[in-house]
Amino acid sequence: MKATAIAPSNIAFVKYWGRKDDELRLPANGSISMNLSDLLTTTTVEFLPGSPEDDVTVNGARLDKETARVSRHLDRIRRIVGMSTKARVITVNNFPTATGLSSSASGFAALSAAGAAAAGWKLSEAELSILARQGSGSACRSIPDGITEWLDGDTSEESYAVTLYPPDYWAIADVVAVVSEGRKEIGTTEGHDRAESSSFFNTRIQHMPQVIADVKAALAAKDFAQFGELVEAEALELHAIMLTSRPSLIYWLPATIVVMKAVQAWRREGMPVYFTVNTGQDIHLICPQAEVDKLSGKLAALPEVRQTIVNLPAPGTRLSDKHLF
User: How many other C-beta atoms can be found within 10 angstroms of the C-beta atom of residue 264?
Assistant: First the structure.
């Protein structure tokens, strides 16, 4: 009745924004992402007969909002396996939480894997991805290995992530520039609710199949310049939807923009580097692995950057025998 799972966060190269179904977290569009080697969540779940309620600790703290969301997800598992036993859950992230680094993706991927295993429920990779998606949409992408695609399905059974390429397919890296560890004011769930209020939302949805096809073509060809241009443009378009939603959603901080402009300047000087940003202030820089040390040195020279985290393409969610309690 106890299990532990380790799950990576992921960075979306093609992002999803808006939902077809809020309860099932079916995305308005498909997406492509890469699992990250050094943004990890470890979660231990133990079902304890006789416990009156779920006991949830996230990074050493007990917070009502997180407990309620974790309990709702565990209820999905309990309903399927036909049990009512409450659980103790300990979760630890090795990176800042709620700053736009997709901590909910790794968090609910780890919770899904550990919770199902602790309940004795054996799932295929696709079934585990579907379960994780219902806790946090992007969590489904943290289940398979490497570079993944979240399939744009119209039903729960059709909407899950698959591996496009294994972690060793392409020697690229994701260097995270942490500019603030403060929690964002507006959560991603609320942001999704605002998406369709942007006058540009429908235009984005209409051309997303072509964007996905173009990114997949660049990945297949290992064309870094084409790939980087597409990824950077996609991130800016996503934030254009946020900026024009009602009410508007502004996740960037001044330091975020400083790093964006620095990346563009470094690229003009000949460095192959592009940026992308999720729903937060911290910024991901994509570069060939051979450029990581040089890029990290440049970031260290920027006073706006508090920390850098270097990630390589990574395996997906896996079980561990090293429990947190």
Answer: 13
Domain boundary among 168, 183, 207: 168
d(CA 161, CA 31): 9
Amino acid at residue number 110: A
**Are the beta carbons of 16 and 28 closer than 8 angstroms?**
yes
Domains contained in the chain, number: 2
User: b/e for 22-48, b at 16 or more Cβ within 10 A?
Assistant: eeebbbbbbbbbbbbbebbbbbbbbbe
- Which candidate, 267, 275, 325, places its Cα nearest to that of 305? 275
Supply the range of the domain harboring residue 79. Answer: 2-168
Q: Tokens in use for 270?
A: 């000949």
Same domain, 12 and 142: yes
Residue 189 is predicted with a pLDDT of: 84
What are the pLDDT digits (tens) for 258-314? 999 999 999 999 999 999 999 889 999 999 999 999 999 999 999 999 999 999 999
Domain finish residue from 168, 190, 224: 168
Residues 246, 271: one domain? yes
166: preceding bond cis by omega (within 30 degrees): no
Separation of alpha carbons 65 and 42, rounded Å: 19
20 and 158 belong to one structural domain: yes
Rounded Cα distance between 267 and 262, Å, is 9
Residue 23 falls inside a structural domain? yes
Residue 119's nearest CA partner among 81, 68, 89 is 81
84-141: pLDDT as tens digits: 999 999 999 998 776 667 789 999 999 999 999 999 999 999 999 999 999 999 999 9
In terms of Cα–Cα distance, which of 277, 285, 207 is closest to 249? 277
Q: Does the predicted TM-score (pTM) go above 0.90?
A: yes
For the chain, what is the mean pLDDT?
95
User: Do residues 139 and 179 share a domain?
Assistant: no
Could you tell me the CATH number of the domain that includes residue 224?
3.30.70.890
**What residues have CB less than 8 Å from 141, skipping those under 6 apart?**
10, 12, 31, 33, 35, 105, 129, 148, 150, 161
